[in-house]
Task: inverse folding
């Protein structure tokens, strides 16, 4: 419980403290990559990313590796910036907090956006194809 209490107590100061710009730019970068990948998925007729990971355990590893190639750099940047922030502000590093922040800033936006973009583009493409016939 102490870990959660410390995390939530230190999360809000991160929003306007040193390096606060990362709370805008890192999710934005993840979202841009997710939109690009979601469009590619739709054009290739693939299932939505997260749904495919959940429903196809035989492809899970492959899909996670492909996803990591896209958001991995953003995740690593989030880790590095959070370590710098914690050392600067707390004079100490809490790895669990760093992992949580990096997941929140890089992985979550990517996973949340990629599938719906795929569905939207697939729907739009099928509607356009239907309207042409």
Result:
């Amino acid at each position: 419980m102490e870990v959660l209490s410390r995390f939530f107590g230190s999360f809000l100061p991160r929003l306007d403290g040193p390096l606060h710009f990362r709370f805008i730019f890192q999710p934005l970068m993840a979202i841009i990559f997710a939109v690009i990948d979601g469009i590619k998925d739709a054009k290739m007729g693939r299932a939505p990313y997260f749904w495919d990971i959940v429903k196809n355990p035989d492809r899970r590893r492959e899909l996670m590796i492909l996803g990591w190639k896209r958001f991995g750099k953003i995740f690593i940047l989030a880790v590095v910036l959070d370590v710098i922030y914690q050392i600067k502000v707390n004079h100490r590093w809490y790895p669990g907090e760093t992992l949580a922040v990096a997941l929140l800033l890089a992985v979550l936006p990517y996973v949340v956006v990629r599938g719906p973009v795929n569905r939207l583009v697939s729907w739009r493409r099928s509607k356009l194809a239907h309207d042409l016939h």
Observations:
- The first helix runs from residue 2 to 16.
- The two ends are 60 Å apart (CA to CA).
- The chain has one domain: 2-14+21-126.
